[in-house]
């Protein structure tokens, strides 16, 4: 499932209850930090692991995403096998 923005993502996650959510930092309407914060605040989605994905791989951005509740963080340049390993780790640890 793909969402066009943060609000659509929250609605979709609440409806579908996926095993894992990948959130981009830069999105229309709500940025990634606020989207993650709202997902983690909601009883329906708070337990779903979230990976934050961004082109802005700077320490302040990473810290802000993790502080908002992301379970992991990846720069958009992440290798597919690394991203898949991080997904596996989150899904197998829960």
How would you describe what is shown here?
By secondary structure, this protein is an alpha/beta fold. Helix content is 47%, strand content 14%. It contains four helices and three strands. A three-stranded parallel beta sheet has the order 1-2-3, sandwiched between helices. The protein is globular. The mean pLDDT is 93.
Provide the β-strand percentage band. 5-15%
Helix content: 40-55%
> What does the main sheet amount to?
3 strands, parallel
The radius of gyration over CA amounts to 12 Å
Total strands: 3
Q: What is the CA–CA distance across the termini?
A: 21 Å
Global outline: globular
Annotation field: number of helices: 4
Mean pLDDT: 93
Short description:
With 94 residues, the protein is α/β, with parallel strands linked by helices.
Top keywords for this entry?
about 15% strand; alpha/beta; 4 helices; about 90 residues
SSE layout and pairing:
Elements: H1 6-16, E1 21-24, H2 32-41, E2 50-54, H3 59-67, E3 72-75, H4 80-93
Parallel strand pairs: 1-2, 2-3
Helix pairs in contact: 1-2
């Amino acid at each position: 499932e793909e969402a066009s923005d943060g609000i659509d993502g929250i609605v979709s996650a609440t409806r579908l209850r996926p095993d894992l959510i990948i959130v981009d930092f830069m999105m229309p309407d709500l940025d990634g930090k606020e989207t993650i914060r709202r997902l983690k605040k909601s009883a329906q989605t708070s337990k779903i692991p979230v990976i934050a994905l961004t082109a802005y791989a700077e320490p302040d951005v990473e810290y802000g995403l993790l502080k908002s509740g992301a379970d992991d963080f990846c720069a958009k340049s992440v290798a597919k096998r690394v991203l898949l390993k991080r997904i596996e780790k989150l899904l197998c640890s829960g």
